[in-house]
Amino acid sequence: MKKVFLSIAAVAAMVFTAQAQFKITPKVGYTASTWGFSKDVKDEIKDADGKISLTSGFSAGAAFELGVSDQFSIQPEILYTQKGYKLSGKESDGEGGSYDAKMDTKFNYLEIPVLFKASFGDEDALRFFGYVGPYFGYALNGKSKSKLSSGGASIDFTTKIKFGDEPENAADDEEYYSSDDANRLDIGAYVGAGASLPVGPGAISLEARYGYGLTNFYKTPDGGDKKDYKSQTRTIGIFVGYSIPLGGK
Boundaries of each Outer membrane protein beta-barrel domain copy (predicted)? Predict the structure, then answer.
């Protein structure tokens, strides 16, 4: 009985492999992202005549699509993705006056989405698709650009963001986040849709997606209220790619 079961499993595996469609899709894209902060943080920014807005970024990588049928497939990806936020508002100068402050912060993530994809239409013509699935991101480093201005004068400076304990010889333009302060792991979900069109041996694709982060970047200190440290990524991405079939029917 065991031999029969193993034989059936082997045949099923060969049939599945023969029917499965393998595609690799190099892709490049634009991101517009911000962070979801707590209501208290949003109120503080509003009280300072400030606002939270989207920052622009870049994303690139590849998707690896395994077709389980003509319509459905599983698509893991590996991406380099920039996510962050913009803040603006007024700050007190300590002498009864104020100055305008602007900050544009971006973090660079290594990201692995695992997407469950449904495609509609003829593969030899324009085809539409949609997908949903989790993603797992890991912050590598980042950069924050700030501008302070008052009375026609302004100061611009850039801060390099790094992770780990701050060394004794740290440069003045470096900011370090220790494991006690920040969570480098960003876990969330993507939902997206797009279209593909056969061109040459493969197909060119255009897609849009929305990413909703579920983990907080800032860690809650002992005795703190977790909701006060809400800091979750929110990302819009637009990608162009080219799918190259590698096997299957």
Answer: 18-217
